[in-house]
Specification:
single chain, UDP-N-acetylmuramoyl-L-alanine:D-glutamate ligase, 6-stranded mixed β-sheet, ligase, cell wall biogenesis/degradation
Length: 427
């Protein structure tokens, strides 16, 4: 079946679904395959649960007038999404970067939705499946789409850009994330910059953080809108005031106080302000959007437990974000401080060095107790006697059961796979 024909059927459906547990009536089901499952085997179940059609790629499952046989289900999903994006011709803002992508995306969406009907990536569904699903969730009512793009190898951002065909783009930063896949920091810069390449080659617009010299250099021949703190060559000036603990910024004589901690969040806020300004959102509405945004999903959340203040930042971690979190944590008010740091994943050959670097930093700061969890942190060395190491979380649990924290500031930071939010059960 040609994509044009499939698109006509898709328009008749309510939404796209790839999980039979979430099927709703009149969905279009795509029978994706994974390492441990074959979506084709669920096609009949999807139809029984109310799906209008099921897209399969194995002939033995093409058993009904409601099944659609294609050569490859995943490629068909991607091609349909790209076709639908062209069909709608909605302005698309693409977003990538090493740190802060999801927070920045949520801030941009909060700001633009003050004036427009927006659709944005849900959570961090930012890969070769998530991007198509985001595009297919847009309708003729959508006025602006905001698409987050993640990658851990070269050519992934380029591929996602060819699916989404963004009109605008922003890269949050270039940090030490996914070093194993990218082969080092230079690979990270090259991989993330694939978005710049696409936008420049297609004469589109790039939002640029004027405080980032790499961004400035790579976009010097681009159509760009530059924001930053007070210096020459900016299209809009946004100044940092403080982060004690919440980030305050100043824009167009307005003071904006967010619910985000850490000065590293200033750039994320500034990007949302700049993009809101570019799309002519009223200043007061920009202020409202930023001030009302509350972080969720283990991202820089502030949690109060009796006399303890917890910074839960356990959604993800890499050397760049870990360093920023620690430096910010040291600035917290003068209570006792304890940092729980879990392993950072996907660092490849740099894992030993980067975990040791973070250990050295953490133990040099004004933090009374540093608790390291995971196989990589367990291997690190330090002369500081107050540093605790636990190879596995179960080992940490025994220590936590005897640890009665009072009047303490707590940082919990690790890669997602460590699931360090489990510490909350003991505080």
């Amino acid at each position: 079946m040609k994509i044009e024909q499939l698109h006509k059927l898709f328009i008749q459906c309510n939404s796209v679904c790839t999980d039979t547990r979430k099927i709703k009536k009149n969905d279009l089901f795509f029978a994706l395959k994974g390492e441990n499952f074959n979506g084709n085997t669920y096609a009949e179940q999807a139809l029984k649960k109310g799906a209008k059609y099921a897209v399969v790629d194995e002939a033995s499952f093409n058993t009904s007038s409601k099944t659609i046989l294609v050569e490859n289900v995943l490629e068909t999903l991607q091609n349909l999404a790209s076709y639908h994006r062209t069909y709608l011709n909605v302005p698309i803002i693409a977003l990538t970067g090493s740190n802060g992508k999801t927070t920045t995306k949520e801030l941009i969406n909060a700001t633009l939705s003050q004036k427009y009907k927006t659709v944005a990536t849900i959570g961090n569904l930012n890969n070769h499946i998530g991007v198509p699903l985001t595009l297919l969730s847009m309708s003729k009512d959508t006025e602006i789409g905001i698409v987050e793009m993640g990658a851990n190898h070269l050519k992934e951002i380029e591929f996602l850009c060819h699916i989404a065909k963004p009109d605008y783009g922003y890269i949050t930063n270039f940090g030490k994330a996914h070093l194993e896949g990218f082969g080092g920091i230079e690979g990270v810069i090259k991989g993330k910059s694939e978005m710049f390449d696409f936008l420049i080659n297609n004469d589109k617009t790039i939002f640029v953080n004027g405080n980032d010299s790499i961004q400035i250099e790579k976009t010097k021949h681009a159509n760009r809108f530059v924001f930053g703190e007070n210096h020459l060559g900016l299209d809009i000036i946004i100044n940092f005031i403080e982060a004690e603990p919440f980030v305050k910024s100043e824009y167009n004589k307005l003071e904006i106080e967010s619910q985000l901690i850490g000065d590293y969040n200033f750039n994320n806020i500034a990007a949302a302000i700049a993009i809101g300004h570019y799309f002519k959102v009223e200043d007061r509405d920009i202020k409202t959007a930023i001030e009302n945004y509350t972080p969720t999903n283990n991202r820089s959340q502030i949690i109060q437990r009796s006399s303890n203040t917890i910074i839960l930042d356990a959604y993800n971690a890499n050397p760049t974000s870990m360093r920023a979190a620690l430096l910010n944590f040291e600035k917290q008010p003068n209570t006792k401080k304890i940092a729980f740091l879990g392993d950072m994943f996907e660092l490849g050959k740099d894992a030993e060095k980067e975990h040791q670097n973070i250990t050295d930093l953490a133990t040099s700061l004004n933090i009374e107790d540093v608790v390291l969890i995971g196989e990589n942190f367990f291997k690190t060395e330090t002369a500081l006697s107050s540093t605790k190491r636990f190879k596995y979380f179960d080992d940490l649990k025994d220590w936590l059961n005897g640890c009665n924290l009072e009047n303490t500031s707590v940082l919990i930071k690790a890669s997602r796979g460590m699931a360090l939010e489990r510490i909350l059960e003991f505080i």
